[in-house]
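Late entry, written up from scratch paper. The run itself happened at the end of the previous shift, but nothing got recorded in the book at the time, so transcribing now.
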Amino acid sequence: MEESKPSLGLLFISLGLLFFAGVLTFLSWQHYKAIDRVIPDGSMIGDIPITGLTPDEAIERVRSVYGLPVVLDYLGSSIMLEMPDTIDYEKLKAELLSNIDRTYEANSFLNFLMGKFSQEPIRMELTFMEMPDSVRNFLSEEIVPRYDIFPMSVQPEGNGFRAGHAGRALDIEASLPLIEQARLSDSDRTAKLVVADLPQPPANILNLEVLLRSVVDTWQDRNQITEIYLSDPASGQSFDLARRNQTDLVPEIAFTAASTMKLPIMVSSYVRMDEEPSSFTMKTMRLMITESKNDQTDWMMENIIGGPLAPFAVTEDLEKLGLTNSFLAGYFYLGAPLLDLVKTEANSRTDVNLNPDVYNQTTAKDMGVLMDALYHCSEDGSGLLTETFPGQITSDECKEMIGLLKDNLLPYLISAGVPDSVPVAHKHGWIEENDGLLHTMGNIGTVYSPGGDYILSIFTWHPENLIFDEGNSLFSQISSAVYGYFNPTPAVKSSEGYGL
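Output as recorded:
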């Protein structure tokens, strides 16, 4: 009986060891089973580290990066673009679990117990879904209307003009790849949008023509006729319009030229002067232009242009220039003989007859074209004058003529519609006619404005009596509107566009 005691003790010891081994084995098994829920060291999804995370935590980390909005940079303005899912997270998680399972299955529990268990890092490449069409729609429907600026040319504003402005436009096609790059980036989620600069469209002179119709209709009397010719030397654009009773007339109406005819007389004088004019000649011509003196005008024709038929020479020069609706048929002194009864296309019209003076007539366009020719000649020696009279007239002579016209400091008509600081080279003309009343006024000038030089020729006729102050108001309003076209009120830029 005493020999059995050691065996019983040994049994208890063995059982205890077995129990302890079972506990260790159970704990080891639990540890072993827990390994597949923790991602091994060095594991990456794309460029995102996921070491030590559970699969859910790893997916959430990826989502925290690629679920961030993309910041759209429109010329410094930031717009947050919430992106739809870039990655199929359910598919990504399934792939991650599959990788973990493969790592786990490659190691047996026995290897674990023997200390030979090891897990290779999981390295997974990201697969991205295509960028949805909603991104393009967001650009075209939200960004473009809010941030693009439509370029605008000079526009009518009341009795003047508002300055135009350049524009900008989002280049959607060029911007989409940059948004895609930001969408797929785990670090730089900003896309600098491609924005194209759009130049300011050229001014449309038709807008000025429309405005001037309104100005004339507002400031002239019933049955009064006004014709306006305007030329923009920089663009080559021009127009000629005539109005009566708020209705267009066919332009190139024959008006009494009066003292405006002294402009072609000056040109004809320079055509014939081969040498530098004497001081007396210059003084005489200055009085002809700046004070509209008739005696000095007749002296220029008699002594420079030549003899009693000098008016014919002036008319011939005008015809050579293609200005066939303008003529001079006699001297200016009282009782001067009428040398010819001149018929022109303008004074032969049956729809409009202003009974112009048979001694001198012109049209707004003829005088405007002559002033335009003088302007180009004075600027660079080009244009109609030097082409028509090669070797007989020079750019320096044209500069002298422009200088004389600038010295005509009459503060009325075209000059009244521009700031005092703006030079105007012009010639005016009006005269009491046979009934002792004023019916016609004319003014032709080149305005040297900050926003561009232009040629303006205005003639008006009143069937009864043209009150000077009323005529002057008409001319100044027309002149002011034209000046506003070339020198519009600046547009004020704000975050939402442009306005006054």
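DSSP finds 15 helices and 21 strands in the chain.
(Scratch paper discarded after transcription.)
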